[in-house]
Amino acid sequence: MSSSLRVVSKAGTLGKKLSFDARDGISAGNDPHFHERLPHAESRIAKASIRKPLLFLDDSESSFKVSTSGGMKKTTTLPCSSQGQRQQHHRRSPSLNNFPRFENAVTDSAALSTRALRQSASFSGRVFTSRGGRLADQSTPCSSRKTSRNDVNGAAWRISPRLELEEDPAFLQDHNVQVLLRARPISGIEIAQLGHARCIRQENAYAISWLGQPETRFSFDYVASEFVTQEELFRVAGPPMVENCMAGNNSCVFAYGQTGSGKTHTMLGDVGDFDRQPNENRGMTPRVFEYLFKKIHEEEVAQRHTNMKFKCRCSFLEIYNEQISDLLEPSSSNLPIREDSTKGIYVDGLVEVEAQNVRNILHLLLLGAANRKVAATDMNRESSRSHSVFTCVIESQWECDATINSRIGRLNLVDLAGSERQKSSGVDGERFREAASINKSLSTLGLVIMDLVDIANGKQRHVPYRDSKLTFLLQDSLGGNSKTTIIANISPSSCASSETLSTLKFAQRAKFIQNNAVVGEDASREAKGSKEHIQQLKDELARLRRQNNSAIPTPEMLVVKLVSERQVTKRLRNEVGSYQRELSECRMKLRTSLDANQRIVSELDVLRIELESSQDECKKLQQDLGTMKLEKALEVNCLELKQAQHHELMFELKAQLLKSEEKAEQEASSRSQLEIQLQEATQESTNLQTELQWTRDSLEEVESLVERLQRKTPALESGVPEASYENFMHG
Ligand SMILES: Nc1ncnc2c1ncn2[C@@H]1O[C@H](COP(=O)(O)OP(=O)(O)OP(=O)(O)O)[C@@H](O)[C@H]1O
């Protein structure tokens, strides 16, 4: 009586398929020494949990909890390894990597563990295994997480059911839209804020409950818990998409969710050094192309007689602030979207590169990812600030009856920018504008989906595809001839409770585009009621039959009983029919009210987003106003200071003026005295000049007299009569 199960150590470094049984304890495949390396506590857990179907491993600070249950849950708490043992364990763990194909064991066991247990004869119930090493610790890259010390101490190692996803390749044959919900592990930042408080509880592989007020249950096509690997998720969503495209149809996978919820991890993941070894954390896109090229090869070989050939042309674009840029040719920006009757909707001027193999695709993906706009917000260190769309046009050609046939399918892989609340994401300025643009395009996406839901319900609606570049570009994928898988990513932490609720609502609405199964929540209760009633009636019938059997029936009695039983059966049939009619009426009513509710909820969502963004704007304006007021107050202070200085200066100037006026007065009086003196002096000078003139005149006269005398002198000397001399003197 043995079974196999994967036991994961608290460090997340032990991952090995173990066989254990009640008598022999633990062994691991062909490795005889494996149990020696297993920490004591784990060994005890495994031994303790073998008989009953429910195994529940818990790793709290001081103990491992083992719950075994066959109906009632019993919990045994086993002491955990001491700190010393724990360290020893940690030191030992690298040696486990030397196990043959240890990496593969980790990957494969993920898919095998529960399935193996289910198939096992001794385990008929459910097995929940908890898997460590899958923390969304934003400071640690995924690839290194497995052995990270944070994981050892990080309390993210926690119990959560790991529920199997069942692959259903036929799903997309009947549905155009498939909605998957994926929860990522609680991140280190969230643990630091609110510990391990969770806002969701997974009910089964299709349903999840949001644990707020009121507690709300949502159902989807698949719900992937945090323990679902990239490979498992791909197996559910990837192959049908690829096959649909190869058959000449369009497929679209897009990841939606709050910033930091794991969209890029889901779509691109950790590609690592692909040339050496594919990374187990690579996401949907690389895996889709691995599968595509494998299928292409198989198809070309199988259809060799028709000379079938495939061509893949790829392009990679981003929509940032409502502008389209080519991620493979970053110099070309603001590319226009055009619509053409033959080409459909396309981006004009977008580079298309032919890819021959996965390596080519990865090269393009990495090139584009490097050109993508990312920034750090409070929620995510490397937040994508744009929507990215990787498109691969798959063209096939083959010959048949001397004619060449061709098919074209288009595969769109969309990584949306994170929806976020500006106030919780620590954004400002440029980041704020980005966030507003992201939220606007996502709310348009929400409205488009709402209208498509209405259309699916037979209502007439104008779908506002052109209100955003994103919806315009994805028009065919959303409402056209495309098969679409929406992966809604959420955080399970209570820190992100409202964002998670909003994503759940979005995803639920998207599911309504074609799938109405969720309506069944209440309706199924009614159906259950009807079934119970039918069962009661059947039991009653059986009892009556038994009673009848106890009597000794005559043929007449038997006929009468047969007739009466037929009547009862007929009555029961009628009752069932009327119940079914009631049920379908209830379904219709429920569906109508759900539709109305969904619409109101979506409108409320849009209004909430708008309100939040205007509240944020208002807050920013208030902050600006506060800053301006402060600046103005400072300016007023400065001015007042200057005014006081000015007054002081005026006062001093006035005093100086007074002094100068007094001085001027004094100077004026001395000036007038001086003027008088000047006048007198002038007068005197005039007099003196007159006198001088007079003197000069006299002098001239004397000189002329002297001259005349000098002229007369010779005459005189020669005896001129006295009279002449007298005449001369007076003449
Ligand atoms: N399923 C998962 N398992 C482990 N780690 C995960 C998982 N999902 C997300 N993470 C981690 O969480 C962090 C945030 O994820 P990611 O960058 O993919 O978020 P996002 O939704 O693309 O954010 P944004 O919208 O801001 O770009 C990353 O460190 C990533 O490795």
TrEMBL record:
Quote the protein name from its UniProt record. Answer: Kinesin-like protein
Write out the GO biological process terms. Answer: microtubule-based movement
Q: Does the keyword Coiled coil feature in the UniProt annotation? A: yes
Instruction: List, alphabetically, the SUPFAM superfamilies matched.
Output: P-loop containing nucleoside triphosphate hydrolases
Q: Where, by residue number, does ATP bind?
A: 257-264
GO molecular-function annotation terms?
ATP binding; microtubule binding; microtubule motor activity
**A Pfam family in this protein?**
Kinesin
Nucleotide-binding keyword on record:
yes
Q: Where is the composition biased (Polar residues)?
A: 63-80
Coiled-coil regions listed in the entry = 520-547, 597-631
